[in-house]
Amino acid sequence: MRRLKLIAAGLGLLNITAASAQTAPEPKATTIVLVHGAFAGSSSWNRVITDLHADGYSVIAVAVPLRSLKGDAAYVASLAASIPGPVVLVGHSYGGEVISVAAAGRPNIKALVFVSGLAPDIGESAASLGARFPTGTLGTALAPPVPLADGTTDLYILQSRYWKQFAADVPEEEASQMASTQRPVSGTALGEPAAAESWRTLPSWFIWGSLDRNIPAALHAFMAKRAGARVAIEVPGASHVVMISHHRAVADLIEQAAAAK
Fold first, then answer.
1. Could you give the angle at the alpha carbon of 207 between the alpha carbons of 204 and 208, nearest 5°?
2. d(Cα 38, Cα 45) in Å, to the nearest integer?
3. Which residues pair with 61 in a beta bridge?
4. CB-hemisphere CA count at 13 Å for 39?
């Protein structure tokens, strides 16, 4: 009798496994490459990754060096070139600059998604765009620059200011952890002018928060309009880290870009 019970239990497990396999999403042909920006890291995409995986997408969240725009873009471009099949590049903040430059001349990149992301024209930089829309408060929230041996400097957001400046719509404790693990950006990278603007030739999607204190909402709207974005979404009350606080909306927009013709 005990043997029969064990066999029955095993059959039940097989049925559960088969049912799970039947409900697994169909794998998608397009790979999503997520590019973080300054003062964050690849883990900032974790919730979006979970959403995309659940819908059958292969995802790579790149650890960007944040040393120079040219170098960071070349790094992402090399990764994209190694991926068989179509790719959607997704950039947050400074990562928007990176994907716009990286996509130049890459035939397998089908779309760009800017998540609170910068989309500079040729010759523009994060610094110059910020000067045109000076309502952001990032400059006053930065810690004193950290000098490096090569003569450049690293920039951090003051940990005491990080929550309200960068991630005001996530729990304070989570923002505190983000502040402690933030990735610094080279000061020269933020001032480096873009050498390409792939948003002029590739379809683009934009999403940002209305209460973004790093990149003002007015600048996001300007860039989205200039790029002729297929979809531009301003999330009411959202901070700079809209991919954390409104991850499902971000994932949905990425999937729209991946499915578009």
1. 140
2. 13
3. 34
4. 25
Chain segment 44-89, per-residue pLDDT in tens: 999 999 999 999 999 999 999 999 999 999 999 999 999 999 999 9
Tell me whether strands 58-62 and 109-115 are parallel, antiparallel or unpaired: unpaired
Token representation of residue 178: 């983000």
Among residues 102, 131, 120, which one has the least CA distance to residue 226?
Answer: 120
What's the confidence (pLDDT) of residue 8? Answer: 40
> Which token pair is 20?
């799970």
Residue of 254, 251, 256 whose CA lies nearest to 48:
251
Tell me the CA distances in angstroms from 144 to 31, 61, 119, 126, one per residue in order.
39, 29, 27, 19
Instruction: Burial-class residue 46 by CB neighbours within 10 Å (0-12, 13-18, 19+).
Output: middle
- Phi and psi of 64, rounded to 5°? -80, 135
Amino acid at 162: Y
Strand ranges for 128-259 from DSSP E:
146-147, 153-155, 185-186, 204-209, 231-235
Beta carbons within 10 angstroms of residue 86's beta carbon? 15
Contact 196, 100 (CB under 8 A): yes
Q: Tell me how far the alpha carbon of residue 250 is from its chain's centroid.
A: 9
Its pTM stands at: 0.91
According to the model, what pLDDT value does residue 22 have?
A: 52
Give the closest residue to 36 by CA, choosing from 94, 77, 81.
94
What single-letter amino acid sits at 92?
Answer: H
Contact 254, 32 (CB under 8 A): yes
Q: Which residue stretches of the chain have pLDDT < 50?
A: 1-21
Are 206 and 227 in contact, with CB atoms under 8 Å apart? Answer: yes
Residue 239 DSSP SS3: coil
